C-alpha cells in the first residue's frame, strides 16, 4: 500500500491540508526555471520551506519563497520579512485564501514582494511595499502572456505565457 505525504498549513489558527495538482506543479517549475539565473549569483535560494508568522500559531507553506542562501541552511521556519519574494499559485480549493488572507498576512509580516499567480483568473499580480494595512503597491492583474517585471535583486521579466 502506498501512502501520500500530506503537508499542512495553519491559516488563521486552522489546520489546512496542502495538495497540488500537476498543472500547479508545472507552473511552479516554469517559474523556478526563470528565477534560476538570478538566484545563486545573488546568494539566494528558492524553495517551499515553511514561514511562521511571529506572535501567532500560523505557519504557511508558500508555493515558492526566495530567501538569502545562508537562511536556507537553518532548520526552523522563517518569518515572511526574511524573504525576498513569496509566490502563491491558486488552486480552486485555496484561491480565496491566497487572494485575500495570505496577501494581508504576508504584507502585515513584511514579505517585500508577493506574487499571486491566479490560475483560475489566468492572471498574475505583484504586490510590494508591505505595511500593517496591506501592500501599498499593486502591479496587475496582468493576464497570462503579459510579462511581469520583478525588481531588484531579480531584475527580470517573468514570461507568464505558459502558466
What this model shows, in words?
It is a single chain. By secondary structure, this protein is an alpha+beta fold. It has one domain (7-158): tt1808, chain A (Alpha-Beta Complex). Helix content is 20%, strand content 33%. It contains 2 helices and 12 strands. It has helices at residues 22-39, 95-108; strands at 7-11, 14-18, 44-47, 51-52, 59-60, 64-68, 85-89, 113-118, 123-128, 137-143, 148-150, 156-158. The strands form 4 sheets. The chain has a 6-stranded mixed beta sheet with strand order 3-6-7-8-9-10, with helices on both faces. The longest helix has 18 residues, at 22-39. The termini are far apart. The mean pLDDT is 92.
What's the topology here?
Layout: E1 7-11, E2 14-18, H1 22-39, E3 44-47, E4 51-52, E5 59-60, E6 64-68, E7 85-89, H2 95-108, E8 113-118, E9 123-128, E10 137-143, E11 148-150, E12 156-158
Parallel strand pairs: 7-8
Antiparallel strand pairs: 1-2, 3-6, 4-5, 6-7, 8-9, 9-10, 11-12
Q: What would you say the CATH architecture is?
A: Alpha-Beta Complex
Overall mean pLDDT score? 92
Strand portion = 25-35%
**Which runs of at least 5 residues are low in confidence (pLDDT < 50)?**
none
C-alpha termini separation: 34 Å
CATH class: Alpha Beta
The CATH topology: tt1808, chain A
CATH superfamily, by name, is tt1808, chain A
How helix-rich are the residues, as a percent range?
10-25%
**What is the count of DSSP helices, taking H or I runs of 4+ residues?**
2
The beta-strand count equals 12
Major beta sheet summary: 6 strands, mixed
Amino acid at each position: 500500500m502506498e501512502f501520500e505525504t500530506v503537508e499542512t498549513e495553519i491559516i488563521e489558527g486552522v489546520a489546512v491540508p496542502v495538495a497540488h495538482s500537476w498543472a500547479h506543479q508545472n507552473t511552479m517549475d516554469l517559474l523556478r526555471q526563470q528565477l534560476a539565473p538570478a538566484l545563486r549569483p545573488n546568494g539566494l535560494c528558492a524553495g517551499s520551506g515553511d514561514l511562521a508568522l511571529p506572535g501567532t500559531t500560523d505557519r504557511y507553506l508558500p508555493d515558492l519563497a526566495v530567501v538569502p542562501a545562508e537562511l536556507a541552511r537553518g532548520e526552523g521556519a522563517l518569518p515572511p520579512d526574511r524573504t525576498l519574494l513569496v509566490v502563491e499559485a491558486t488552486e480552486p480549493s485555496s484561491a480565496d485564501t491566497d487572494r485575500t488572507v495570505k496577501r494581508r498576512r504576508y504584507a502585515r509580516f513584511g514579505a517585500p514582494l508577493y506574487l499571486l499567480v491566479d490560475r483560475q483568473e489566468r492572471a498574475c499580480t505583484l504586490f510590494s511595499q508591505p505595511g500593517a494595512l496591506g501592500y501599498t503597491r499593486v502591479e496587475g492583474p496582468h493576464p497570462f502572456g503579459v510579462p511581469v517585471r520583478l525588481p531588484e535583486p531579480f531584475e527580470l521579466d517573468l514570461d507568464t505565457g505558459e502558466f
